[in-house]
């Protein structure tokens, strides 16, 4: 039985994939739970259009990610936090703080889950980290933490 997956199914495929499964597995498990729909010529044309649009978006995203990477790596982000006299911060610099600073620098929204910091930032100084902008594009960033006056 040929089916089109509508959700990710472990050991079978991703949404939009056309796969061949045994009749009982498709009819009794995948289709009733909404994980798949039956394959038809019309549905295949629709899947081809969706995949083409997905490829075009991926190409545009990669180009914008490269531009953002260049902007992020070219400069140092400055984050201002309140600190004690010894340079220790009241709290810590979070990935959300870095995401806000990076969004301003890159000119597009960057999610905090894309950011990886090398250790926790709890004092004034210079630090490094990375931001995953696309599947294979990662920007290495420099962060400077200064005390608020």
From TrEMBL:
Pfam families for this protein: Ribosomal_L9_C, Ribosomal_L9_N
Cellular component, GO annotation: ribosome
Domain of life: Bacteria
Residues in Ribosomal protein L9 domain copies: 13-40
Segments forming a coiled coil: none
InterPro entries: Ribosomal_bL9 (IPR000244), Ribosomal_bL9/RNase_H1_N (IPR009027), Ribosomal_bL9_bac/chp (IPR020594), Ribosomal_bL9_C (IPR020069), Ribosomal_bL9_C_sf (IPR036791), Ribosomal_bL9_N (IPR020070), Ribosomal_bL9_N_sf (IPR036935)
Keyword Disulfide bond included in the entry's annotation: no
Keywords linked to the UniProt accession: Ribonucleoprotein, Ribosomal protein, RNA-binding, rRNA-binding
Keyword Ribosomal protein in annotation: yes
Record HAMAP family: Ribosomal_bL9
Function comment: Binds to the 23S rRNA.
Protein family membership: Belongs to the bacterial ribosomal protein bL9 family.
Name recorded for this polypeptide: Large ribosomal subunit protein bL9
Organism placement in taxonomy: Bacteria, Bacillati, Actinomycetota, Actinomycetes, Actinomycetales
Gene this protein is translated from: rplI
